[in-house]
Amino acid sequence: MTRLLIVRHGQSMANVGEIFAGHYNVPLSPLGHEQAERTAAFLTAHYAVDRVYSSDLDRAMETAACTAKKLHLTVTPVPALREIFAGEWEGKRFDRLAAEYPADFGRWLADVGESACTGGESVAEVSERVVGALERLAAENDGRTVVVATHALPVRVFQCFVQGIPACNMKDVPWVSNASVTEATFENGKFTLVAVGMDAHLADLKTSLPANV
Asked: Cα 148 vs. chain centroid, distance in angstroms?
């Protein structure tokens, strides 16, 4: 059995600016660094972590590095764990997207599971690459506990995949908070969710995506 501890990155500077980042590379905010440190303390206190993986985008790598440093491990980057490629939306504020792409962004807000970014990826494509990457990591690490730092949409599509939630109902699955931990196991080719979006350890540092995304 493999245990996966899937961490959404800490608050990024794009989160602070209410910007749709996608593959746009931004660092953690100062608060995001504090969140990542709290999550690292939580993980190392409650689990025997063997390896650390991350999306290769800075905000995820910086989050993963906090845990890896405590354990004297290195972070292995996995590009397939990136956030959605947002095409024309990348680096733009959410309020601009609503004004400039009313149809496509309106679909994102109303029916995220069956939407796509203008000139970018669809949510279905993200699900395929993220689930595939997590299946590979889980199969390669049988008997180990691994930390995987990624992003909000990858966590959401993974949760829907494991729980058998169809794309049309993804809109009813909330975003997990920054630096939260989703725990899953993988055995005999099957994932099981143990907990989703654990964030009590963040206490007063908890942050989430706004309502207009």
From this structure: 9
